[in-house]
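Q: Given only this backbone (156 positions), what sequence would you predict?
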């Protein structure tokens, strides 16, 4: 049985925490379930984006993440499908909102034991939708893999 590494567990934790309530009086329309991973040859890229206020305080503190309803966090990890281990990659992230405004997301590499993942943060406004364009360049592969996904954020 393949072991589940820390990067995948962290991604799942982030997704589970994001499902919790925020005490809203007006509930926005639910977004359709979207993909959270993409196969790129012999690797799988896992990705998620959520408001940083959904992170438990201890997790935010441990990773130096500012908790706020007005900040979004992008989390990316790359798993070798054959070995089920995290791998390093060169990531390029371009983020923009629906009006075309570019959002700066500086990714940083996190390594914990065998797990490797990348996180970055950016400010968001209430009901703002961000489009994440991620380029993943793996060692030994000439052409980077390109993926795109979008998420809407709520701060009220």
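A: Predicted residues:
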């Amino acid at each position: 049985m393949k072991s589940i590494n820390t990067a995948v567990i962290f991604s799942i934790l982030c997704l589970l925490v994001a499902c919790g309530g925020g005490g809203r009086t007006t509930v926005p329309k639910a977004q359709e379930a979207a993909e959270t991973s993409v196969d790129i040859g012999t690797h799988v890229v896992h990705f998620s984006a959520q408001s940083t206020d959904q992170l438990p305080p201890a997790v935010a503190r441990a990773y130096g993440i500012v908790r706020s309803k007005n900040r979004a966090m992008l989390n990316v990890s790359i798993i070798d499908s054959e070995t089920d281990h995290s791998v390093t990659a060169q990531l390029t992230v371009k983020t923009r909102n629906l009006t075309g405004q570019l959002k700066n997301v500086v990714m940083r590499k996190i390594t914990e034991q065998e797990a490797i993942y990348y996180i970055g943060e950016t400010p968001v406004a209430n009901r703002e939708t961000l489009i994440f364009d991620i380029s993943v360049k793996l060692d030994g592969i000439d052409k980077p893999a390109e993926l795109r996904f979008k998420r809407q954020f709520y701060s009220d």
